[in-house]
Amino acid sequence: MSVSVVAPGRERGAGLMTAALRWTEPSIGGPLVDAPYLLTTAVFDGSEPTGPTATGVHTHTDALLVWPHTGSTTLQTRNTVRRLLPGQGAWLPPGTPHASRPDPGSVSCYTYVTPAAIPPHWSAPRPLRLGRALQEMLLHLDATPMPDERRLRTQRLVIEMLEEDPYAAIEVPVPEDPRIRALADDIVRAPESDLSLEEWASRHALSVRTVTRAFVRDVGMPFARWRSLVRMSLATTLLAQDCPVNLVAHRCGYATTSAFSAAFRRVTGTSPTAYLRERTALAPADR
């Protein structure tokens, strides 16, 4: 189906959104779902620097389901950043601070769910799977007039159909130390770089020991593993854009396709071609 969008957007760029954000002072949004309804969906693209998704860190009194219709959507919470692909969604309970934007050329959807309709025990963020049928139902509800009884019945069905995603988007933990965060931002902007840890530390006037300790303390993993997550997050986006595996390997900093495929399997548990098949099955038919 065709999708009408409004255009909030941000500055165009290929990297994950990692710029310093004011997590201690999130703006607070009011309820977006009008009674007696249970949910509503807003659809945005990234063509203009205005609108709700350009307001930085914020919260909502409703729960929020973030999902891309086409392309990819970058979602950042206090300690993680992830890039969602078609078929992937992220559930945020009411009051969860976050920042989000459609990536260049993408269309992103934000489904707000009133607290009274939240499934039991859904009190923490979680990855959700949105197949084609569920995506189209949400967009149909957003675009089509219908009697209240039918709308409410369909909204209840949509909520019942929500399920966790076995192929969740890759979460990249974010260092809290601002010195290490600056280094991490540079790596996210150039995931293909073959600079060593020692070279990255030197560029930021840091000791290798300081960087090593900060990554273990702040993100719970060694630097090498963290950089692999950054590269695989980019890889999933490129694969979803139908880039050949050998080109994806090169763009992500791997000398050979076999080395890339092995690294991809270590992070995702599957091969690049199998991952692409799964994502293609969930993408909109008219993408």
UniProtKB/TrEMBL annotation:
Residue stretches making up the HTH araC/xylS-type domain: 177-278
InterPro entries documented for this protein: AraC-bd, Homeodomain-like_sf, HTH_AraC, RmlC-like_jellyroll, RmlC_Cupin_sf
One Pfam family cited in the UniProt record for this chain: AraC_binding
This protein's UniProt keywords: DNA-binding, Transcription, Transcription regulation
Alphabetized PROSITE patterns for the sequence: HTH_ARAC_FAMILY_2
Highest taxon of the lineage: Bacteria
PANTHER family in UniProt: HTH-TYPE TRANSCRIPTIONAL REGULATOR NIMR
Protein name: AraC family transcriptional regulator
